[in-house]
Amino acid sequence: MTGIAAIEVLIADVPTIRPHVLAMTTMHSQAVVLVFIQRDDGVTGVGEATTIGGLAYGEESPESIKINVETYFAPILKTCDADDVPGAMTQLGKHIVGNRFAKCAVETALYDALGQVQVKPVSDYFGGARTDRLEVAWTLASGDTAADIKEGERMLAEKRHRHFKLKIGKRAVADDCAHVTAIARTFEGRASIRVDVNQAWSREQAREGTALLQDAGVGLIEQPVAKADIETMAALARDFDIAIMADEALTGPDSAQLLAKASASDAFSLKITQSGGLSAALEVAEIAMWSGIGLYGGTMLEGGVGTAASAHLFACLPEFRWQTELFGPLLMTEEILEVPLTYRDFGLVVPNGPGLGIKIDRDRLKRFQRT
Prior knowledge:
By secondary structure, the protein is an alpha/beta fold. 39% of the residues lie in helices and 20% in strands. It has 13 helices and 13 strands.
């Protein structure tokens, strides 16, 4: 048995390149939460538990993740075998309810350390990578039509992204849809367009907006209504040709089963944090594949650690019908990795070194770390 010697949790506030406007909040920086787990043999793994907008998005915040890992997770982990990651996660599951983001960071850190010891990439623990590159969409979220078009043109010219997601839901439905329509018409035939409403619409607004967006040639609508309103999700999926995607409603394998049974979505936004970890996210993906539901590789706008972890898992899956959106590090003004992740030819290169295949630059991290 290899024990766990130390657990450290840090929060770093990293500025974003521009305001990132969502239905529930506007982001000017991202609070990156990192969990470091040191084994008895001296090897340290790292995982990320980053979320969005404090408590505006979900029930976990950067501060709660830090104190819960330090107070409740650490004593349990120090009784576990660091070489038996599934066993350690089972022990946490027995004693800790919820805390999906925190559990994801811990599982990632354990696999990162184990991969370094066994000289294996994290993807090897989930069936092995099928690809070395993942296509990455970009979110246009300034809220200004002209600015979003200019940004999109630059992304196409630089061959960084050719799939764009627009954040809407703050304005009147007609105004939001006019904004999206103008952008969709501009990029018609050159880039795909999808939108994320972040649960902002009522049932009536969702029907109005879905009809307008379908006419505009938009391919997909992410979480148009409240996550509990599965009935409306199912009705939209049934009554419209445009794909309806579950995001906030998708909180792990149990919710995936429910959504699939109700035919309440055409696509799943697969997120390792929202699922409760890499293993749970793999279960969600398998449910989607068994049910004929398309996959979209989602993000919580994580930095390099969470993005690398997601890439390792996503690379093991046979298909992402709606690509991925692992662009989190590109939204931040500063890099906290010694060597940044590689983006080229509209995609992200999957790291292939031992563990996550990345290293934290501690000096850079200190510049943004909360004290």
